[in-house]
């Protein structure tokens, strides 16, 4: 039977409502339709169930969302359709699995666990199990229920039903035996006899998850939780026992954002920290199984990569095996989440193709014990014969795990119940002032509580001396970070322990520089993401407690910090002067006060081709174009406000890890593809993008990372700090193969082509920071059909309309390319109607690549569009190159100066480069095009020497140019 797939769309949340969100999902019977907000194109998907929970409900007094029109699917309907089916299957003795998949905040936990009166599938099914048991009329039929709860975070499996401080460092081991299949070694199983007991255990599991999340740097929404109910029915007939057993796995998966990038392997997985390896592999498993089920399996057979992740190993049975499986895909209704929601629907579409082979698990107990004993005997004899320490160790561990498993298996439910001492933490008194946690996973909020019976309470890391009272393992939290105390009026106060802690201590979004008195429902942020709500029962607040959650507090902080930032940094972009001159000199503007934000400091002075007719003075008084809309500026500020603390945190982690690297925020320009007016070449009018500059402090080299890559790497840095291990280069977030980057764009006037003139010219390559990245010698030569240059052209370009022209694009060479990125340089352009064209790649390192590119185009029709294009637009030529490659022998040697790949040319120091540039610019004969400035990425900091052989380097660089799998030639910070 196939995996059953359900999709469910939730209501808009408050934030989406505030932003005036638009709906992009419709449902019609089993069909779910998603509409692309950009194109208006709908796409249909068909599933076993499409649950509409977006609107059409009323709220009952107890908070239950009740259906008000026929379309609305409330919690009861969803349970009835999915949960009940799971229970029926379990009763028949089938293994069952229910997955919830979807991006963070899409409603997975709402469906699986639920909130308040809106109980989800897990509690309702658990309750129903005992209702059914209690209704059983057969005195010879006995039932045994055991539960376990685990979390998979960063490929580590942890038992959620044991105290956090008893968790094994490396997590629990996943074992596999011929007899039992896959099992988690030492996972505690808890015999339960009522729903209330299950509820208590679930509560305990969530509290442990919540505590666990304060003990790690990363966020908890990237963890998967599996709640397992083992359900046995034993029929006693005279002296014989027969029965059935069913394992019900209820799986709340981590947020699926970015997991759409399924099939990502190798290098991509290195950046997969935020992507979540288990989810990526789950995608691959589903894809492979879907392919297999669709009969596309070729003779060799499709290998299902179960073993590639902890999640898929544990759930192997649920996917394509002995299980009746249901997948609930939670959908956000808002157009802003269109891409993610579409990817969830695609995922769901693939999952429905999986075929499972569920069988009734009848009376396995005695049989399993018998077979396990046999397997253990076999293992023992293998141990005797085994050669090699590694193999011996493996077999011993397997035997030990198997023995523990058979001992547990042979114990009766009653014996196990007696053996396990459920220790529930005593309730903390919340009647007085206290703080309680807010977690991005709503289920984990309110689980961690501290009251102020014993003050002062110091917060810090476990390395703090004296040891703090509240331990938070967040890299942005100092060893002794802040203190909660009581003043003479019984007010609770909070203050940073030293000034540097204020960077990561906020109350209601504002940094805390000195002692503050806390008021009821104040939001306290410690570090980057540990949030607490202060409560003083009985005190009034202008806020309602229900309105405050993790997102609220984060958003509040980001907005407040954004306002602070706007006060500190110059306007982005600066207001253009009025009136604007077309051939204007650079517009002076203030140096940024904040030394982290680096704005483009110069402006292109003159990008005109020499063959261009002089500009009419009339143009000089043109009205300046509208400045960028405020919202874009604010959006940039808002992203900056979010990025700054992360960059600060990355710098703190780098220091803690003794890595000589500094992160800075950079605002770079998105160079335009179409240039029409002079203003189009003013960086002030270009779209801005945020990058993170990564500066190696030993060698002064600089890399620019996308924010997304930075966030992935930060996440890996946090984990490195948590685990305190030396990663291999493949796993090291600060170890990169050389990457291909855009060095800049040059703009070539097509006006001469419109008059059938050639136009040999050295165009300026403008870098993304608005500076220069060298010069490019090129020409477009109008020709006859045989490629011979034409002698004359028309009086006006319009005369060409309707005729066919021939021309040759020549890109000869480039100069002064920033050396640090001058490996495998090539150019690319897009002439309208002729597609994207590329020069050859100039192999190896060269500041002066010679492309020698000539491409003849014949019979190109000049229509109105092309005629107009040639008169008004410039052709953009993009120049790409690959970054510096270095070899590092071992990580231990990282403090030694790395050796470059050999090359004939000296890798120059910055003074030489600038000197050479000036000399060369003079010989180029068009000095007006050369701007001496910060332009190129990392050039002026490339003050290293070394030798680089272009022959040598070109050998490896072919691969590097394509994204670089060549780990040998990587750089380590
Ligand atoms: N069907 C629904 N009806 C009403 N509210 C819903 C529904 N689904 C989700 N919500 C609300 O949306 C918010 C986010 O839902 P939920 O916590 O279930 O998301 P999630 O996908 O589990 O997120 P995470 O990955 O962070 O755990 C919650 O406040 C929840 O109450």
From TrEMBL:
Species whose genome carries this gene: Blepharisma stoltei
Keyword Ubl conjugation: no
Domain named FHA: residues: 457-512
Upper taxonomic lineage: Eukaryota, Sar, Alveolata, Ciliophora, Postciliodesmatophora
Family: Belongs to the TRAFAC class myosin-kinesin ATPase superfamily. Kinesin family.
Gene Ontology molecular function: ATP binding; microtubule binding; microtubule motor activity
Disordered, as annotated region: 570-622, 925-973
Name of the protein this chain belongs to: Kinesin-like protein
Low complexity: bias regions: 611-622, 946-960
Any coiled-coil regions, as ranges: 365-409
Binding-site list for ATP: 102-109
GO biological process terms held by the UniProt record: microtubule-based movement
Segments forming domain Kinesin motor: 2-354
Pfam families on file: FHA (PF00498), Kinesin (PF00225)
A single cellular component GO annotation: microtubule
Keywords per UniProt: ATP-binding, Coiled coil, Microtubule, Motor protein, Nucleotide-binding
SMART domains: KISc
InterPro entries attached to this UniProt entry: C2_domain_sf, FHA_dom, Kinesin_motor_CS, Kinesin_motor_dom, Kinesin_motor_dom_sf, P-loop_NTPase, SMAD_FHA_dom_sf
């Amino acid at each position: 039977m196939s995996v059953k797939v359900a999709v469910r769309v939730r209501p808009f949340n408050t934030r989406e409502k505030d932003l005036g969100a638009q709906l992009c999902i419709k449902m019609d019977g089993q069909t779910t339709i998603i509409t692309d907000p950009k194109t208006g194109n709908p796409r249909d998907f068909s599933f076993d169930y499409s649950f509409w929970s977006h609107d059409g409900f009323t709220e009952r007094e107890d908070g239950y969302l009740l259906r008000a029109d026929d379309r609305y699917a409330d919690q009861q309907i969803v349970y009835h359709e999915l949960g009940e089916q799971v229970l029926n299957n379990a009763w028949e003795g089938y293994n069952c699995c229910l997955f919830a998949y979807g991006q963070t905040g899409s409603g997975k936990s709402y469906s699986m666990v639920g909130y308040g009166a809106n109980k989800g599938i897990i509690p309702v099914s658990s309750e129903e199990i005992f209702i059914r048991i209690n209704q059983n009329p057969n005195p010879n039929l006995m039932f045994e229920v055991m539960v376990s709860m685990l979390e998979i975070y960063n490929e580590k499996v942890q038992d959620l039903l044991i105290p956090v401080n008893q968790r094994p460092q490396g997590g629990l081991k996943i074992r596999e035996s011929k007899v039992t299949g896959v099992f988690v070694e030492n996972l505690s199983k808890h015999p339960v006899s009522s729903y209330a007991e299950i509820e208590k255990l679930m509560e305990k599991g969530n509290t442990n998850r919540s505590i666990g999340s304060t003990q790690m740097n990363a966020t908890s929404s990237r963890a998967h939780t599996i709640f397992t109910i083992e359900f046995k029915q034993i029929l006693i007939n005279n002296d014989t026992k027969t029965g059935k057993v069913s394992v019900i796995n209820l799986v709340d998966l981590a947020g699926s954002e970015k997991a759409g990038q399924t099939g990502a392997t190798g290098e991509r997985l290195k950046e997969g920290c935020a992507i979540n390896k288990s989810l990526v592999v789950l995608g691959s498993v589903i894809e492979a199984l879907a392919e297999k089920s669709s009969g596309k399996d070729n003779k060799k057979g499709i290998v299902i990569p179960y073993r590639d992740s902890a999640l898929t190993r544990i759930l192997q049975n649920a996917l394509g095996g002995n299980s009746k499986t249901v997948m609930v895909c939670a959908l956000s209704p808002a157009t802003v989440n269109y891409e993610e929601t579409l990817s969830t629907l695609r995922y769901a579409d693939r999952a429905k193709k999986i075929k499972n082979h569920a069988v009734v698990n009848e009376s396995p107990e005695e049989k399993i014990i018998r077979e396990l004993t046999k397997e253990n005997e076999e293992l023992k004899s293998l141990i005797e014969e085994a050669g090699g320490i590694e193999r011996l160790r493996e077999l011993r561990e397997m035997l030990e795990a198997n023995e523990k498993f058979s001992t547990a298996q042979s114990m009766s439910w009653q014996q196990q119940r007696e053996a396990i001492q459920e220790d529930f933490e005593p309730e903390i008194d919340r009647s007085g002032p206290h703080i309680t946690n807010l977690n991005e996973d709503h289920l984990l909020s309110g689980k961690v509580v501290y009251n102020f019976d014993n003050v002062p309470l110091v917060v810090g890391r476990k390395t703090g001396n004296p040891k703090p009272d509240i331990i938070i393992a967040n890299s942005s939290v100092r060893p002794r970070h802040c203190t909660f105390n009581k003043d003479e009026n019984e007010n609770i106060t909070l203050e940073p322990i030293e000034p540097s802690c204020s960077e990561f201590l906020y109350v209601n979004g504002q940094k805390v520089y000195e002692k503050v008195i806390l008021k009821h429902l104040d939001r306290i942020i410690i570090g980057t993401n540990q949030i607490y709500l202060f409560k003083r029962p009985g005190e009034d607040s202008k806020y309602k407690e229900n309105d405050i959650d993790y997102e609220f507090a984060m958003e509040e902080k980001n907005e407040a910090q954004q306002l602070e930032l706007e006060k500190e940094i110059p306007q982005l972009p600066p207001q253009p002067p009025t009136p604007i001159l077309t051939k204007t000199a650079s517009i002076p503007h203030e140096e940024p006060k904040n030394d982290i934000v680096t704005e483009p400091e110069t402006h292109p002075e003159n990008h005109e081709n020499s063959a261009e007719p002089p500009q009419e003075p009339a143009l000089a008084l043109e009205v300046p174009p509208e400045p960028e809309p405020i919202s874009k500026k604010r959006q940039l500020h808002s992203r900056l406000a979010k990025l700054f603390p992360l960059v600060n945190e990355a710098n703190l982690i780098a220091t803690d890890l003794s890595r000589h690297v500094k992160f800075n925020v950079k605002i770079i320009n998105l160079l335009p593809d179409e240039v029409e007016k002079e203003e189009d070449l003013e960086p002030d009018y270009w779209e801005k993008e945020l990058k993170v500059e990564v500066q190696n402090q030993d060698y002064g080299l600089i890399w620019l990372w996308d924010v997304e890559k930075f966030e992935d790497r930060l996440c890996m840095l946090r984990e490195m700090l948590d685990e305190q291990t030396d990663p291999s280069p493949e796993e090291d977030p600060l170890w990169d193969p050389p990457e291909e980057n855009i060095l800049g764009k040059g703009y070539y006037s097509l006006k001469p082509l419109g008059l059938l003139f050639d136009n040999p010219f050295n165009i300026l390559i403008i870098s993304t920071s608005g500076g220069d990245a060298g010069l490019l010698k090129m020409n477009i030569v109008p020709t006859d059909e045989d490629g011979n240059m034409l002698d004359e052209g028309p009086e006006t370009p319009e005369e060409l309309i309707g005729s066919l022209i021939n021309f040759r694009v020549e890109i000869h060479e480039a100069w002064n390319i920033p050396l640090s990125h001058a490996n495998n340089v090539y150019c690319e352009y897009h002439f309208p109607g002729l597609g994207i064209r590329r020069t050859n790649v100039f192999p190896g390192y060269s500041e002066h690549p010679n492309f020698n590119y000539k491409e003849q185009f014949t019979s190109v029709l000049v229509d109105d569009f092309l005629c107009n294009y040639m008169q008004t637009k410039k052709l953009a030529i993009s120049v790409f190159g690959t970054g510096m490659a270095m070899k590092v022998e071992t990580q231990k040697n990282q403090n030694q100066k790395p050796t470059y790949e050999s090359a004939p040319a000296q890798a120059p120091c910055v003074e030489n480069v600038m000197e050479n540039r000036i000399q060369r610019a003079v010989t180029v004969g068009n000095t007006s095009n050369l701007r001496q400035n910060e332009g190129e990425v990392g050039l002026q900091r490339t003050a290293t020497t070394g030798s680089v052989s272009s022959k040598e380097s070109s050998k490896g660089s072919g691969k590097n140019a394509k994204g670089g799998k060549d780990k040998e030639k990587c750089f380590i910070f």
